[in-house]
Amino acid sequence: DAGITQSPRHKVTETGTPVTLRCHQTENHRYMYWYRQDPGHGLRLIHYSYGVKDTDKGEVSDGYSVSRSKTEDFLLTLESATSSQTSVYFCAISAGTGVANTEAFFGQGTRLTVV
Amino acid sequence: GEDVEQSLFLSVREGDSSVINCTYTDSSSTYLYWYKQEPGAGLQLLTYIFSNMDMKQDQRLTVLLNKKDKHLSLRIADTQTGDSAIYFCAERKGGSQGNLIFGKGTKLSVKP
Q1: What are the tens digits of pLDDT across the range B10-67?
Q2: B100 contact residues in A (CB cutoff 8 A)
Q3: Does B39 contact chain A (CB < 8 Å)?
Q4: A56, A58, A87, B86: which sits with the fewest CB atoms below 10 Å from its CB?
Q5: A43 interaction partners in chain B (CB closer than 8 Å)
Q6: Confidence band (pLDDT; 50, 70, 90) for B1?
Q7: Chain A residues with CB-CB distance to B52 below 8 A
Q8: Which residues pair with A77 in a beta bridge?
Q9: If you write DSSP's letter for every residue of chain B in order, what string do you get?
Q10: Using CB atoms, which residue from B4, B96, B104 is nearest to A101?
Q11: Inter-chain touch A103–B41, beta carbons under 8 Å
Q12: B49: nearest CA in chain A?
């Protein structure tokens, strides 16, 4: 398995509370991504990072913020969780170079339930 | 409509070939990908194809690309029960620096 770890793996939280999900990689890859996976929607990009302190929005960024203070860590924060943010969240990494230049490695996911 | 479309389910018998189809919409997509997701796991990159290729073969996997029709397919030869998973097609929109856009996934069930 690639060195990518998500924590926590499962979380139940109440509406209105802040939540932070962590993605940690040991591959020293430049690019990191947060996706959410929902039934009927496949995976959708929330935010991504192309270097330390360099981040950008994806397709479904409203209600989420991210931070990357170190190459190995990419944090996703829900400032005030809502029930619509109940989902499975995946982190992915990419070297950003090479033939395929794609998110080649995904974490095992974090199942978040907002009640 | 969805940018990338796939049928949701496919059922085959062990030993048969499986063909999973996908259509995409962005003619500038330079790379197209297939990912596999096993239950409770993240996605695993299976294979990819350049837009200037028609076919790519990798052991039991064959990818066919019809750029004119924006149609991509993944053929799995001699399908095994271990191939049971959800398969996602993805395109990189807007060229090589664009974001990945995934289809909804095709759930492949392999019957013994």
Answers
A1: 999 999 999 999 999 887 777 889 999 998 888 888 999 988 889 999 999 999 999 9
A2: 45, 102-103
A3: no
A4: A56
A5: 43, 88, 102
A6: very low
A7: none
A8: A20, A65
A9: --SSEE-SEEEEETTS-EEEEEE---TT--EEEEEEE-TTS-EEEEEEEETT-SEEEETTEEEEEETTTTEEEEEESS--GGG-EEEEEEEETTSTTS-EEE---EEEEEE-
A10: B96
A11: no
A12: A100
pLDDT at position A99 over 60: no
Alpha-carbon distance values, B16 to B37, B47, B64 (Å): 20, 20, 18
Question: By C-alpha distance, which of A102, A99, A101, A30 is closest to A68?
Answer: A30
Q: Please give the order of strands across the beta sheet that includes A73-78.
A: A4-7, A19-25, A73-78, A64-70
* Chain-chain contact of B45 with A44 (C-beta, under 8 angstroms): no
